[in-house]
Design goal:
By secondary structure, the chain is an alpha/beta fold. It contains 4 helices and 7 strands; from the N terminus they run βαβαββαβββα. Strands 1-7-6-2-5-4-3 form a 7-stranded mixed sheet. The chain is globular.
Length: about 170
Amino acid sequence: MDEAAAPRNPAETRLTVTSPEQMRELGLRLAGLLRAGDLVMLTGELGAGKTTLTRGLGEGLGVRGAVTSPTFVIARVHPSLVDGPPLVHVDAYRLSGGLDDMEDLDLDVSLPESVIVVEWGEGKVEELTDDRLEILIHRAVGDTTDEVRHVTLSGLGDRWAEAGLDALTG
């Protein structure tokens, strides 16, 4: 296999979150690493904390509007209040196809000047950019009140190679 075709190893960080407040705080810390042009894909079971994490991102980015699940509107744009990039929050849960089904959202047009966060984006938005942050949030399923979440952050591409994801564990 030639070097150009070899898969790039992601920069990866794993951490444990024990409450919704800690998930929001993780989003706050992560916002400090984000910049315009970043694509963040969130994967996890229903109730895992994807929107709570995004709420922290929005707070950390200083955007306008309450960050809530955009399930029924598919996408919400939160303009910056601090001359930073807007946050585009997408919920792809109800979209069955790949990027073709998401074309009407114009994410490819928004990406250069925005931070785009896509919940349920796996298999749907990877074609937007080779550089992306994939966040997997795992929680116990079934009859449990356990608030523990295991979060894996995988930075793919040159953008994330030296982005400092390991600083989020502190």
